[in-house]
Amino acid sequence: MTSDAVRTAGLAAVLATLVLVSSVAAPLASARPAHEIPVTETERADLSQPAAAGWEDVPASDVALASAPSGVPNADDTTVETVHVQAARTDQRLFVRLEWDDATRDVSADDPRTFADAAAVQFPTNASARPPIAMGGPGNKVNVWFWSGATGSQELLAGGAGSTTAFQNPAIEANATHSGSGGNATWALVYSRPLNATGENRTALQTDGDLDVAFAVWNGSNGERAGQKAVSEWHYFPFGPGPQGPPYETLLWTVAGVAIVAVVGVTTFGIYRTREGN
Amino acid sequence: MSTDQQDDQGSEDSLVDVAEGIDHQVAMVMDLNKCIGCQTCTIACKSLWTEDGGSEYMYWNNVETKPGEGYPRGWEDSGGGWQSGEHSERQTGEIPDQEDYGRAWEFNHNEIMYEGSDEPLRPREGAEWGPNWDEDRGAGEYPNSYYFYLPRICNHCTHPSCVEACPRSALYKREEDGIVLVDQERCRGYRYCVEGCPYKKVYYNTVSKKSEKCIFCYPRLEGEGPDGETYAPACAEECPPQLRMVGFLDDEDGPIYKLVEEYEVALPLHPEFQTQPNVYYIPPFAPGQHTEDGETVDIDRIPRQYLRELFGDGVDEALDTIERERQRTRQGEDSELMDLLQDKNPAKQYRLGVFDDE
Ligand code: SF4
Ligand code: SF4
Predict the structure, then answer these.
(1) Backbone dihedral region for residue B348 (phi beyond 0: left; psi -120 to 50: alpha; all else: beta)
(2) Residues 27-66, chain A: which have Cβ within 8 Å of B?
(3) Is A227 part of the contact surface with chain B (CB cutoff 8 Å)?
(4) How far apart are CA A105 and CA A203, in angstroms?
(5) pLDDT (tens digit, 9 = 90+) per residue, B229-269?
(6) How many degrees, rounded to 5, is the angle at CA B266 between CA B260 and CA B268?
(7) Number of Cβ pairs closer than 8 Å across A and B?
(8) How is domain A40-238 classified at the CATH fold level?
(9) InterPro entries from the entry (chain A) (predicted)?
(10) Which among A37, A42, A40, A51 is positioned nearest to A175, based on CA atoms?
């Protein structure tokens, strides 16, 4: 081989590698749909504390919040605009971590005028149909994981605003910490639930498809409670086997990658042959 | 018990405006001319219903001095109720501050009783306001100062804005008698009822984290006590001068119907809140003003305008009617109204079983 030929072959190999890498990476990075919240598969057994080691490896999605439409007084006066959501799954449990800015830690409701900070994660009880975003509907209920700074966690069932009832045997756990101060203060909250928890009106987490999920946050010191809350649109956890993200996209990139590699390979071989023939 | 249909007919026949879907409406008339401010009613209620943790600061029945700030302080200006008699738009309201209700003070009993302290008996700390802080202060200048006592419970309103304010329908008006209750299973402590009641007669329990209110002693009405007998609410039965009548507004043979609907001398408190209360008051009389030399002159001691602010414009006619009937009895004539206002017969004062056979 001449030195020219070696250089050409090297270039081709680099090109081929680049193409291959991009075919794998692109769907994960740039093409993730806006309402998808990735769920990281992990071996770590315990992510139940907001500061547990391992959360730094789980990607966070910024979920936008806005005042929920509601008939209660001051419904459009809410303060929290974004919640950062992370989700991780072991073969036993699903962990959902929320983090949001809140300058005050409101954990008491033991005065007539005080309200506690709170948050909620909402799933359809039946993953096959997306319920109305505002607490579901009578025929299309939602399973809510609720946490309040004053009273801890509650698992709820709702079929429309005002219909919330608590599960007698909740399957969820929640741990929260408030840290920082002033403009840098945040709540971090982790909910978790065994994947195999069953029960009437309890969302099945051992599902192969996408699972709809929505979020809500209440700022207690702003008098937020009930329908006066900051809520997200429906998002989804892409549960299911194999690589994540829409598979056809990965397939297309792979086909394109293989074709480019082949073309580069054939071209290189052609040039090499031509030079050798000289 | 009757069928629903008969019940419906019962309320349709009635001349009284009871709430939609309600068979009968409990009601109370309090004669303010008889109240001595002894607080026996307050204690009867408290020892029955609000002695547990989280309810220390509550007085489902309170007796306040008028003119005065009341309990909770400034409740008359705290909003709530309806914007108009159409009952379509509610008026925004505020949750009273804990300081406006007053706290359950701790006293230095221990020091005085067991440690030989010779301090006066007094709250340990921070006693700057509480129920009846301004008791007997009233208004006016000597020798024409004036005040009267105003006992208050939930009015079990015909258009209860507390019920309407709750996004969970945790408050409701009982079908059989219109008593307004908070379903403790449904309540999630949002306190929209607390701010929505213009009389501030729903209270937030700081331990159970749910709202509570006067239940018109419904277990007593239902004969749930050890002897199985029916009793009127404790605040009424325990009142030394027996100034409260208890019955149904739509019991046309009862004294409440006569006083409210026929003679129109029993008036709701602050009718402009538009909740249509079912507790009614015989407005207070006071002797005329005195001159410096102690002569009585024909000028109202309690300014009429003040009474209109409390009981609405109907107060003029009510007071005129009572004065006219008093005059009749002075002249030896019969007056059904005066008999009703003086009647001590318990069977008439408390008429609770009248619809039991329906
Ligand atoms: S007085 Fe207040 S609490 Fe009682 S029924 Fe009326 S609005 Fe409701
Ligand atoms: S018990 Fe009767 S007299 Fe005494 S404060 Fe109450 S209503 Fe007035």
Answers:
(1) alpha
(2) none
(3) yes
(4) 31
(5) 999 999 999 999 999 999 999 999 999 999 999 999 999 99
(6) 100
(7) 48
(8) Immunoglobulin-like (2.60.40)
(9) Cyt-c552/DMSO_Rdtase_haem-bd, DMSO_Rdtase_II_haem_b-bd_su
(10) A51
Hey, which of B197, B204, B270 would you mutate to test ligand 1's pocket, going by the most ligand atoms within 8 Å of its Cβ? Answer: B197
C-alpha A83/C-alpha A103 separation (Å) is 14
Domain boundaries, chain A: 3-30+247-277, 40-238
Give the ranges where B201-244 is alpha helix by DSSP (H): 218-221, 234-237
Number of the ligand closest to the Cα of B44: 2
Q: What is the pLDDT of residue A244?
A: 45
Separation CA B182–CA B18 (nearest Å): 20
Please indicate, yes or no, whether the overall pTM of this predicted structure exceeds 0.80.
Answer: yes
Q: Which residues of chain A have a CB within 8 Å of the CB of B96?
A: 112-113
For domain B16-349, give the CATH number: 3.30.70.20
Q: Looking at residue B270, what is its pLDDT? A: 98
| Closest C-alpha to A228, from A125, A40, A78 | A78
Atom of ligand 2 nearest to the CA of B37: 5
Task: Tell me how far the alpha carbon of residue B81 lies from the centroid of ligand 1, in angstroms.
Answer: 9
A23-80: pLDDT as tens digits? 554 444 445 788 999 999 998 779 999 999 999 999 999 999 999 999 999 999 999 9
* A162 in reach of chain B (CB within 8 A): yes
* Chain segment B113-136, per-residue pLDDT in tens: 999 999 999 998 878 999 999 999
- Separation between Cα atoms, residue B256 and residue B348, nearest integer Å: 10
Asked if B167 and A111 come within 8 Å (Cβ–Cβ), the reply is no
